[in-house]
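call fold(seq) -> C-alpha cells
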Amino acid sequence: MKKYWFLLLAALLGGATCIFAKDTLATWKAPAGVALNSDFTVKVRLQDGVWHTLSSYLIKVDEVRDTRHYVENASMVIFDFTGKVEVAVTYNLGEVQTAKVRPLSYDIPFQIDGNTVTFTLEHPRNLSVEVNGDIFHNLHLFTGSPERTIPDKDNPEVIYFGPGIHTVKNGELRVPSGKTVYLAGGAVLMGRVLIENVHDVKLLGRGIIDHSIKGGIRIANSRDVYVEGIVATQCATGGSENVTIRNVKSISYYGWGDGMNVFASNNVLFDGVFCRNSDDCTTVYGTRLGFEGGCRNITMQNSTLWADVAHPIFIGIHGNSKAPEVLEDLNYINIDILDHREKQVDYQGCMAINAGDNNLIRNVRFENIRVENFRQGQLVNLRIFYNEKYCTAPGRGIENVLFKNISYTGENAELSIIEGYDEKRKVKNIRFENLKINGKLIDDNMPDKPRWYKTSDMARIYVGPHVENIVFTSDVAQSQRRFVHPGITYTQGDLDRMKAMVEARQEPYYSTFLKLKESSYSSLDAPVVNRGEQIKEGRFNATIGVDGRRAHDLALLWHLTGEEAYARKAVEYLNANSYYTNTSSRGTGPLDNGKIYLLIDAAEMMRDYSGWTRQDQQRFKDMLVYPGYSNTENYSAKYANYLDDTKNGVTFYWNIYNFDAARFGNQGLFAARSMMAMAIYLDNEIMYDRAYRYLLGMKHRKDDLPYPSGPAISSDQPIHVSPTIIDYKLLQRKNDIQDYGYDEQLQYYIYPNGQCQESSRDQGHVLAGLHNYVAIAEMAWNQGDSLYSSLDNRLLLGLEWSYRYNLSSIQSYKKQETPWEPTGLTKDMNEVTFDNGKYLQIKSRSGRWESVNISSHGRGDVAGTGGTREMALAHYAVRSGLPAEKYTWLQRYRDYMIERYGCENWGVAPNWFYEWTGWGTLTKRLTPWMAGDPVTFSTGKRVSGLHQLPSTILAADYDYYCISENPEGHTYHNIGTVRGNEYRPDGAVELQKIDNKYVVVQVEDGEWMNYTVNIPKSGAYAVFLTYSANSSSHVAMASDQGLEISSSIPSSKKWKETKLGELSLSAGACVLRLRVDKAGQKLCLSAFRLEKVERDR
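ret:
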C-alpha cells in the first residue's frame, strides 16, 4: 500500500528545517477566543487517510447594494499540503443546491451530496467556495506548500509568535532592521505590523493579523523586505525598493480598504497573492500620502483579485504635477479576476490606467489574465485623467501597453474606454494580442467583422480622440513561426553531442559511428546517377529511397568528422535528385512520395554548407513543390494524373498534401512525415500546421486548403474475410463532414488501449506506422510542439502495446514468461484498456477494413535493427522523466535490439532505405540529465549548439526544453512559475538585464539549472562562478557523470568571480548542473567557466 505522511506544524525548537515526504498535510487549530464562523464545516485528508477538521475563521467582506455598503460575515480556512488531498465542505445552513469553486480557470471538479461539496486538490490553490450563488457568505480556502524552514524562536534576530492570540503595545509592532517576524500557524496578531525606515526585514509564517486590524501590514521607506504567507486586511508599500510579497492574503471590508497599494517604489514583486478588497485590489501610484517619486519595475504574478468595490488593477492617478513622474515597467501576469463591482463610471475597469498629475505611464504588460463574469464595470479603462477630486492636472500620457492572452467570459461588462486628453497628452501604442471575449478572438483581420467596423467595436471598447496606434492581433494573424535550423531530426545540439561523444570515443556512440562510416551507403566512391525529371510508379525505392539513405548518412558524417569529402558527396546526391517535375501519383502515391523524407533531412543538414550553391538549393526547394506551392489553389486537382504517369504534372508535396484517406494509416503517415520535414526545410508555417493539426484531429487553418471530407461509404458485403481482418470495397466518400479525419490521425491510428489500427494486418506495418509517428513527434519537439505527450502520451501507449505483443513472443520476462495474447474480443471501445488486454474489433475510418483479431504475421523481431526505439526511449525516459513502468516494453525492446545487434541502424536493404533516419544509438542516446537542448540566446534568438570549452557560459543560457511543455524539473528547478521574458521565451528562471547582459535573479534555495557542455579532455576542471550578492551563499556544481563540488561564496555587491572547486570530468558531452543550496540576499548569477587543471608530472 502507498504510505502517506501527516505532519502537524507547531512551534518547532532549534530552527529545524522541515523535510516533507511525498504526501504531507499541515493544519493548525485556531486559538481560543478568536472569532470563528460556523457557516461551514471543512475537513481535509490525504487520499484514503484520516479526515482533519479545520478551524473556520470569521472574516468580513463588503457588499455594496446600490450605493450603500454592508459588512457581511464570510469564512476562511488555511492549510498546507504536498501531493493530493481531498476536501469536504459542509454547508451548515441548509442544502446545497448549486456550488462554485473559483477561480474557474483551475477547472476543479466537485461533487454535491446533500449539504456537502467535495473535491480534490493536487496543487496548492487559493479558492472561493460558493454555495447557492452566495458570494458574500462564502468560504475562502487558502492552501500553500509547507514551509521549508522555520526560524529559531530563540534567535535574537527573530520575533516569534507561536500559536495563540497576541497583543502588541499601542496595537503596533514596529520591526527593526535585520529582524525576522514569524507568525506561526494558529497565531493571531492583534496589531499592525509596521516595516518603516528599515532594511533587510522578513515577515513570515502561516499566521493571521486579525480582521479587526485595519491596514494590517505597512511597508514604508524601506528596502530588502520579504513578506510571505500571512493573512491581513491590507499590505501597502510606499517609498521602498526590493520588496517581495508572496502568498499573502488581503481581505478588507471598510472604506479605503485598498489591498496592495504601491506608492513611489521600485522593484516590488507580488507573487501568488489573493486580494478581496473593499477598494482597489492593487494600485501603482506616484507621489501620494507623503511618499514621493515615480514607480519602476512592479510585478504582480500568479495571483487572484476580487474587487468588491472599485478596480482589481489600477495604475496612475496620483503623482506630483509640479515635478512630473514616470510609472514604468509594470507587469501583471497570470492573474484571475473573480469580480469587479463599481457603479461610478470614473472608477470602473478591471485593468485600468488613468494618468493624472502629469504622470507618464509606459511599458505596461497585462498577460494571461482571465476575467470572470464580474457584477458591474468595464473590462479595460485607459484614460488621460483629470479628476479634480484627486488630481491637480491631467496626465502626460499612456504608451506602450500590451494586453496579451486576455479572456473575459461574462455578460455584465459595460462599454470599455480608451481615450486621450489632447494633442500633447495621448494614449498611444496599445496592442491587444489574443483578446477573447466570450470565446471569440478579437482580431483586426477577424472574418466576421464588417470592413466599416472598428475592431474595438467587436470588443465593446470605445476608442476616443487622441489615441494612436491601437492594434488587435492574434497568433493566427501573426502566423509567422520562427523555425529552428537544423531542426528536422537533429538540432545543432544533437549534432554537437554526437561529435563530442565520437571524438571522446565514448560508447556506444563510437562503435555505432564506425558502423556508419563503414557502411556501403557512406561510400565516397559510389557513382552518382542523375535521376532526371520523372519517377515512375514502383521506382521510388531505387531513386529517392537509396539516394536518400546515402545523402543522409554522408551529411551526418560531414557534421561528425568535418571532412568535406562527405559534404561534397552528399550534395551530389541532392543535386542528382533536384530536377523532378513528375513523381508518380498512381497507386500508393502518398506513401511513395513520402519517401522524400531522407533527402529533405540531408538537405536540412547541408543548408549552411558553402559548397552547395544557392542556385542548386533553390532548384531542390522548387522541385519539392512543383509546379509551385499554394495554400489557396489545389494544384493536385489541376495537374496530377492518377492513371497515366506520362501525363502527371506534380511532384512530392501535391502527392502528399492530403495524406491518404483510402489506405492503412502508415501510408498517410509517410506523407505526414515528409510534409512536416518539407515545411521545416522550406520555412513554411502553413504547410507545417497542415501536417501537425491534421494528425491531432484539428480543423484546417482558415488560410489553407481543407482536409479530406467524409465519411467513407463502403460495400455492405465484404470482399474478403480472414480470421484477423475483413476487407470491404470503398465506394465513395461523402462531403457531409469537412476535415473528417482518417486512419493516420493519432486518435484513430492508436486506440485508447494502445492497440494499433493495423494490428489485424501484420506486425511489420504496425511498427512502420508507430516508428513513423515517433519520427514525426521528434520533428515537432525540435520545433516546440509536443506530439509526444498528446492524448495522454498515446504514442507511448501504442509502442508499449505492440512491443509487448511482439517481444514477449521471442523473449521471456518476469511476470510475462509466455507470449502475451489479447484476453478477449469486444466491439465496445469503453471496454478496452491496456491493462485488461481486450482486443477492440473496429472498422477503420477509411471504411475498407474491419479488425477481427490480432495478426501474428511478422510477429517478433520484424524491425530488426531498424526503427526509432532509441529516439522514443530518450524522450520518454530522459526528456519526460516518466516512471520506468510507463515505458517497460520500450526499454526491453531497445535493450533486446542492442544485445542482439549491438546498435540501432536503419534495417536491411533493399526494404528499409527510407523507413528510418537510423543510427539511433549514435544520434539519440542521451545521458540521464540530457532533457534539454543546449542553447544560447545572446544573439536575440534561439541558437542550438553544445557549449564548447574553453568559454564563458552565461547563467541565462541554461538548456532549452520545449515551449509547449513545462521545463520545470527537467532543465531547471525554479520556485517562480511565470515563463518567458525578453531574453528567452521558454523558462521561468527569473532574468534581468544588468550591465547590458541578462543574469539570473531572484534566486532561491534549492534552485538549479542544467547546461550541456563538451568536455574536450578527461581530467580535473576548475569551476569559476561570476556572481553578486549582499550576503554569503552556498553553491554547487554537479555533473551527470556522478560527481559534484560545492562551496560557500562570500557577499559581494559588485560582480565577483570565485572558484567553486575542481570537478573531475570525462571527455565528451555531459550535463553540468549549477545548484544554489543557500541563496544569499539578492544573489545574482552571471556566468561560469571551466578551466582545465594541468598537473605537474
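The two ends are 58 Å apart (CA to CA).
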